[in-house]
Design brief:
There is one protein chain. This protein is about 70% helix and about 0% strand. By secondary structure, the protein is mostly helical. The protein is elongated, with a radius of gyration of 20 Å.
Length: about 240
């Protein structure tokens, strides 16, 4: 009976851990997406002029306006053009949005390879959302060669920055031995941490997984989770 319960729990967790990473809805930009700290709202003509002069932040912000249709007719082609110019200069947020847009095919032809390219650039700069999404692409083999090792590596980078979804998914990979050595306690540690950082669903999933472990495994996992969390993810092994 215990073995059957464990198998059922694993199947349920796997369905949640590797559910679709993105929705097919248009991204909504907040003030923090459109502006950086200290930036002021520019008129469209001033923003266009600065973008045409090569300012990467203005190019990104102009791309946002075209994509969102803010004060200007929505035009995905123009948005992607300005995002590309900004991202080509290393703008992390432009790279992140290009990665998402090409994944979803939102106003452009869906292209997982192009999505992965921009996400990797943003991920290398430390953007944990891109790191997490790149982990998903490697796990599913979308636009890249399928690799559980690479998936775990990118999930780990995002997890160590406090990304709860990446922590949850990394825990699932340790539970299943995908790209990492199978380890129920390490799995529980990451899923436990994700429950602290994430939404109510992670708490329920943590409790469900906990029911399949021994008392010793639970105690060990809780101790390791506290050490990992309080060390700001510097001591998680």
């Amino acid at each position: 009976m215990k073995t059957l319960l464990i198998l059922v729990v694993i199947m349920m967790l796997s369905q949640r851990m590797f559910a679709q990473e993105f929705t097919n809805s248009m991204p909504t930009f907040t003030d923090s997406d459109i502006l950086l700290e200290g930036e002021s709202v520019l008129s469209l003509s001033d923003l266009q002029a600065q973008a045409e002069q090569g300012d990467s932040q203005s190019q990104r912000r102009l791309g946002n306006r075209y994509f969102q249709g803010t004060g200007i007719p929505r035009n995905s082609i123009e948005a992607v053009k300005w995002y590309r110019l900004s991202a080509g200069q290393g703008n992390e947020r432009a790279q992140r949005w290009l990665g998402r847009i090409f994944f979803e095919g939102n106003g452009v032809i869906q292209d997982y390879s192009e999505s992965a390219r921009w996400m990797e650039l943003a991920g290398q700069k430390g953007d944990n959302l891109s790191q997490r999404r790149l982990g998903f692409l490697y796990y599913e083999g979308l636009g890249v060669t399928k690799s559980f090792v690479e998936a775990a590596r990118w999930y780990r980078r995002a997890a160590e920055q406090g990304n709860a979804t990446a922590q949850f998914k990394l825990g699932g990979m340790f539970r299943n031995g995908e790209g990492v050595t199978k380890d129920a306690v390490t799995s529980y540690m990451w899923i436990n941490i994700s429950a602290v950082n994430g939404d109510q669903n992670y708490i329920g999933d943590r409790n469900l997984f906990e029911s399949t472990l021994s008392a010793g495994q639970v105690a060990d996992g809780q101790l390791r989770a506290r050490i990992c969390f309080t060390s700001d993810y510097q001591d998680c092994d």
